[in-house]
Structures are given as C-alpha cells and as structure tokens.
Amino acid sequence: MPQSVLVLLQKPQSPLADQLRQILDQRYGPQGWRDFNQALAAPPPAGPVVVLWDLHGYAAEEAAALGGVLSSDSVGVVVACGRVDPLARRTLAAVGALGLLAQPLGADQVAATLEMARATQERLHALAVERRGLERQWDERLVIEQAKWFLARSRGIGEAEALRQMQRHSRDTNQKLAAVARKLLETHRLFSGGCEEEK
What we know:
Blueprint: E1 5-9, H1 17-28, E2 34-35, H2 36-41, E3 49-54, H3 60-70, E4 75-81, H4 86-95, E5 99-102, H5 107-155, H6 159-173, H7 177-191
Parallel strand pairs: 1-2, 1-3, 3-4, 4-5
C-alpha cells in the first residue's frame, strides 16, 4: 500500500507557521512533507494525501472554497487552529476532518494526530481501490452475462454452452472473456441497428 503524502497548508503570517514546520522537519525530515504550493506544482500523487491545514488567517469565504477542494475522498485533512470557533467547526464538517489540533500544540500531539490521520487515509485509499476493482469486476460480469444470454438466444443453445463457446474463443484469441463479450455485444448492436432486445 502506498504511503500517504503529507502536505502543509498555511498562510506565512500564521502564528503556528514556524512551529508546525519545525515539528514536521523533526518528525519527517525536510523531504518527508510538502508545502501546499509545492504539492500543487508537482504531479498528482498516486496514493493518498493528508493535508495539515492551519486555519489561522483564513477568511470564512476562503476557507469554504478550500474546504470544497479538500473534501475529496482522496484527501484526508487534519485541522490546526487556535480555538474551536464556528469557522473551525464548519471547516471540520465540510472536509470530514480526520483530526483536530488546537493550541497549545506539542510535538508529540502533532505527530500522533498526523500518524493516526495518515493510517486512516491509507486504509480509506486501499478500500477505495478495492471498491473500484470490485465495480470493474461487476461491470465485466454483467457484460459477460448479457453476451452469454444473447449468444444462447441467437444460436438456440443453452447458456452454459454459450459460455463455453465464449471461453473457447477467449482462449483461442488470447483475449479476456469480458473483451470477447463486449465485442460480441458491439457486433450485435452494429448489425441490429442499435435496436437491441432487452433480456
């Protein structure tokens, strides 16, 4: 499983600017995390992303706009703030935050919260990848079932025999069964003028 990319989002004038950067450097090394602008300039990471968002200095409208961007399933957010005010509560809810750091901040508290958030985001990422795989398998199975039904009906054979014929063609042509099924259905649609009877 790919390790999450850690990104710091904050304004330079934040009272936590130096403290958070020092903690991140000590815990992860200067190369172990990215500044938000740095992350935007780099190619998108293949794995999960955890953003440590220092709310100091963000106006409500600005925070709402950024919250919309950061509410993606592929991004986990830890919010750092001076106190839990209405803006912080709205932001926490908007991004589905994985953690909250309120002042005063200790290095151990920051590290533990980030590690928890990273582990959670990595698990969520793995589940999302698994879900996409299952959805792809389901789509392939549906196409195979539709093609099997069509082949059985058009040739007057049983569905088990239709499946065997598709599997044989799959082996003989070194194609996946789902690819054979798609081609079969595309050919049927092409020659039936798109007027396909429903199962």
